[in-house]
Amino acid sequence: MKFFIDTANLKEIQEAQDLGVLDGVTTNPSLMAKEGISGKHNVMAHYARICDIVDGDVSAEVIATDYEGMVAEGEELAAIHPRIVVKIPMIKDGVRALKYFSKQGIKTNCTLVFSSGQALLAAKAGATYVSPFIGRLDDVSTDGLQLIDQIVHIYNTYEFNTQVLAASVRHTMHLIKCAELGADVATCPLNVILGLLKHPLTDIGLSKFLADHKKAESTAQNA
């Protein structure tokens, strides 16, 4: 499974890249605003800086909600760097835009997906990625992981090429369960990826090894 980091913070992206497990980045207008990035020129330049750090796909979201606007914005975004993936909302004109970009050979990420029916439309329109938001579904007492399971099953049944990109991943168990269910990608904050490192038995074992080594060294020096 691919690991994407869901942020616009360059320091976090670099840390994930240096860890050696990063496959890509997803962003959105909210994440850009969180980093104080505003204005078209600044946003475009920030996307370029992200692409300079990572080796994989970088999702850049359109702001327009009409077909013509999404196409115009998407083409501008795609021109920034070959790694840019145009992020399109799951709305009627968004589906049209997905089809347009698919025909143009431009990668897309269909975002704000909350049902298997929406995911089916995105795949038929040729989306490169589809982003079901599992955490937001959990917030309204709906099983987000069940949606991942449904989409993976549908895509495998009909051999769609669209990749299931689990989004709104909140914690390590979300990440592990998405891997078990066969999601192609999970995008999450850096702390969720780093959370996979943690286990108390690892800490206990390492402490014992170091203590034993120190004891052996002390014994050797006193011999």
Concise account of the structure shown:
The chain has helices at 10-19, 29-34, 40-53, 67-78, 92-104, 116-124, 134-139, 144-158, 172-181, 190-195, 200-222, and strands at 2-6, 24-26, 57-61, 84-89, 108-113, 129-132, 163-166, 185-188. With 223 residues, it is α/β, with parallel strands linked by helices.
Binned, the helix content reads 55-70%
Q: How many separate helices?
A: 11
Q: Which of globular, elongated, flat, extended, rod-shaped describes the shape?
A: globular
How much of the residues is beta strand, in percent?
A: 15-25%
Count of extended strands: 8
Largest sheet: 8 strands, parallel, barrel
Mean pLDDT: 96
Q: Which class best fits the helix and strand makeup?
A: alpha/beta
Strand order of the largest sheet: 1-2-3-4-5-6-7-8
Radius of gyration: 21 Å
Give the helices and strands as they follow along the chain: EHEHHEHEHEHEHHEHEHH
Low-confidence stretches: none
End-to-end Cα distance:
52 Å
Task: Spell out the key features of this protein.
single chain; 223 residues; alpha/beta; eight-stranded parallel barrel; 11 helices; 8 strands; 56% helix
